[in-house]
Amino acid sequence: MFAHQSIPVTMAQQILLNNIKVPGLASFDVYRKLGGYTSVEKTLKNFTPDEVTAEVKKSGLRGRGGAGFPAGMKWGFIDKSTNNPRYFVCNFDESEPGTFKDRHIGQLNPHQLIEGMILGSYALGARTSYIYIRGELFYVLRIIEKAIEEAYANGFLGENILGSGYSLDLYCQPGGGAYICGEETALIESLEGKRGNPRIKPPFPAIVGLYDCPTVVNNVETISALPWIMNNGADAYSAIGIANSKGTKLISACGHINKPGIYEIELGLPVEEFIYSDQYCGGIRNGNKLKAVVAGGSSVPILPAELILKTAKGEPRLMSYESLAEGGFETGTMLGSGGFIVMDDTTCIVKNLLTFARFYHHESCGQCSPCREGTGWMEKILQRIEDGRGTMKDIDLLVGISKHIEGNTICPLGDAAAWPVASAVRHFRQEFEDHVKLQRCPLSK
Amino acid sequence: MSLVKVTIDNIEVEVESGTTILNAARKIGGAVVPPTMCYYSKLEGSGGKCRSCLVKVAQGSTKDPRPMPKLVASCRTAVMDGMVVQNITSPEVMENRRAITEFLLLNHPLDCPVCDQAGECHLQDLSYEHGLVDTETVEERRTFAPIDIGDKIKLHMNRCILCYRCVMVADQLTDQRVHGVLGRGDHSEISTHITKAIDNDFSGNMIDVCPVGALTDKTFRFKSRVWFTKPFDAHRDCPKCSGKVVLWKKGDEILRVTGRKDKYGELEDFICNDCRFEHKENTDWTIEGPRKIERHSVISQNHYEKISKPEIQDNNS
Ligand SMILES: Cc1cc2nc3c(=O)[nH]c(=O)nc-3n(C[C@H](O)[C@H](O)[C@H](O)COP(=O)(O)O)c2cc1C
Ligand code: SF4
Ligand code: SF4
Ligand code: FES
């Protein structure tokens, strides 16, 4: 049940995984002794809610759930003109294949997340907040629930927190365990007790969200960075990282590397160093050659070795929003949610893509026709090609289908299904053609 | 309400602010009206799902003339003052509409020769207008056995395109809803809650809103191809609904009763199950006259209209 505890963790910067190895960190007493909840004391006393938002804006913190939208700016969109309640919701669905960082925080350092929830809720003027957690992560739910109880018992949640006049109730709600429930509007529907179907946007949650009230949904990692920012100041945070990629980022690295695990990196770290240095991934297993990397969870474009290590311009590729995206979708990719999947030269790209396609087909909510039908169609074609029953026409058909899904769906799940397909054919077309010509997988014995 | 100007396929129209692109196009009428498979003006929250009404916004508004980055669902996007929309004038829209049509047909049996909806089917029209002659699919279609949902309605899930209109009827018109969507993705299906039958005063409207032949009227199934029937507007004094219906007759026999639809195929009034299923005698109804059916429909074939001749002026008198 606690298998994740054995995942190796390396700390370059001590923001999110600070103290993570301290025994008993999940308990209030240990967390508090290590300086926990001081940001709440400081903030409720010295900052107005708008000043907290301004501080977060200034820090340069971007959402860590995938899209990288600036957190402070998102908070700024909240409609404060109505008398309706406002809600702050933590997205603890963690559904992206290849991404397994949030559960680590929730399991080992739940109070840091709760502390962040208090700060965000205060900034937004939320009286009630929710941590929406993937149903399968029941053991983490129990840990968080216990931590919430402790926070109530110690006066950090509930009525009149620390005598500041600010009150907050926090609930942890398990979801149904569908990938789509990680999409923020589907999450809101699910939280309301309905089928987790994404809503059509606009309106955006900042205007019409949970129970039709203004709502902000942020990722676990985004929220967990807030205590450090409020304790150390926006300037200290923005001094870490580069360009428009500030602070640290959790990367869950997996696949054919010597040291899979969760790493906190400073944004701007060269990809090459991340893959090959002993401090991080420790190089490719068995001394094999690097073939490809999916840098930000299964929904981002896959890049071949030469383009993940260096951009098309020949510059070293860095672990940052800008550098990974350099070249657009022709020769670049996305930082996404930080699920770093490494493939060595024993990997069949077609088979790997088939696995991804099967996932998106299975997880499509089924509301809109391009996604409902297109994801299944792509899976079937990929299965044909992988089985050696594909034709050359199938390869172009795949690309055509992905183009007709991309941008035409209600929510970005369609894009998430389409991008890996389009990029894999772009960069590894030869491998698809070999499958067709040989009528089998060229890598199978 | 303030008025805003929007240009659709080079035609300018003035509409109330808050109007959707689709309804602005409907105000112009004709070929610039995007097709709709899931939107239904009388059902709250409908639209946005089938994506067949996608259009290109070439200019967002006078204030912000930037184009919108993606095609948008015209049924759910409000117009802005100075918006410029491309529908049939955009090759991109037409290409994507064709693709959407193919997606909708991917799991559709095209059993028009035996389908009760043929002649009234929006998917048939969409395929005719936007589909390809050839299909690129070799995939097997999903199949379900038809099931009775209640004593008056039969569900052919094979033909369902998951437009959610019937779910919205059930949600918005009937109490104690027992039917909805089960499953996810292309495994989704419309079904009743476990074995419950749909038995409600207004449930029959689900049949009328279904754009394809998935929900059929068991009192009419296989009785006649619809183009062999003659539609008449009729009404009766009904305590539950407006009582305004269309009677579909063969000879003197009433084969089917439905609600009256506008030119976009949407019901003008929802009717109750009593009117729909229980009144098949001519004496039950006051017949107003033949129903006018839109020219493009196969049903209008052979329903000739009398032409009133212009009077000839005698200039010599
Ligand atoms: C299909 C889909 C699944 C998603 N799953 C997650 C998820 O598991 N966790 C998450 O934080 N964001 C997920 N997102 C992104 C959320 O919609 C949203 O952008 C994010 O929670 C916002 O948080 P942030 O601003 O802190 O990044 C998903 C998006 C899509 C389209
Ligand atoms: S639902 Fe329409 S397109 Fe489908 S089989 Fe019936 S008539 Fe044909
Ligand atoms: S049964 Fe008909 S109305 Fe209901 S979702 Fe399917 S196609 Fe739409
Ligand atoms: S009619 Fe607009 S999306 Fe279906």
Polypeptide structure, described:
Chain B: Belongs to the complex I 75 kDa subunit family. Chain B: One of its GO terms (cellular component) is membrane. Chain B: It is found in: Membrane. The complex is a heterodimer of chains A (445) and B (317). With 445 residues, chain A is of the alpha/beta class. Chain A has helices spanning 28-33, 38-46, 49-59, 71-76, 102-108, 110-124, 138-153, 184-191, 220-224, 226-232, 234-238, 271-276, 305-309, 321-325, 328-331, 349-363, 369-386, 392-405, 413-438, and strands at 9-11, 87-92, 128-133, 169-174, 215-219, 241-242, 245-246, 248-255, 261-266, 269-270, 290-294, 302-304, 318-319, 339-344. In chain A, the strands form 4 sheets. Chain A has a 6-stranded mixed sheet. Chain A has a 4-stranded parallel sheet with strand order 4-3-2-5, with helices on both faces. A two-stranded antiparallel sheet of chain A has the order 6-7. The longest helix of chain A is centred in the C-terminal third of the chain and has 26 residues, at 413-438. Chain A is globular and about 75 Å long. With 317 residues, chain B is α+β, with helices and mostly antiparallel strands. Chain B folds into 3 domains: 3-88, Ubiquitin-like (UB roll); 143-217, Alpha-Beta Plaits, CATH 3.30.70; 226-300, no CATH class. Bound molecules: flavin mononucleotide, iron/sulfur cluster (2 copies) and FE2/S2 (inorganic) cluster. Flavin mononucleotide binds at residues 63-67, 69, 74, 91, 93-96, 179-180, 182-184, 217-219, 222, 411-413, 416 of chain A.
For the largest beta sheet of chain A, what order do the strands appear in spatially? Answer: 1-9-8-14-11-12
Identify low-pLDDT runs of chain B: none
SSE topology string of chain B: EEHEEEHHEEHEEHEEEEHE
Ligands and ions found: flavin mononucleotide, iron/sulfur cluster, FE2/S2 (inorganic) cluster
Report the helical percentage of chain A: 40-55%
GO molecular function (chain B): 2 iron, 2 sulfur cluster binding; 4 iron, 4 sulfur cluster binding; metal ion binding; oxidoreductase activity
InterPro entries (chain B): 2Fe-2S_ferredoxin-like_sf, 2Fe-2S_ferredoxin-type, NADH_UbQ_OxRdtase_ferredoxin, NADH_UbQ_OxRdtase_Gsu_4Fe4S-bd, Prok_molybdopt-oxidoreductase
Domain 2Fe-2S ferredoxin-type (chain B): 2-91
Domain 4Fe-4S His(Cys)3-ligated-type (chain B): 92-131
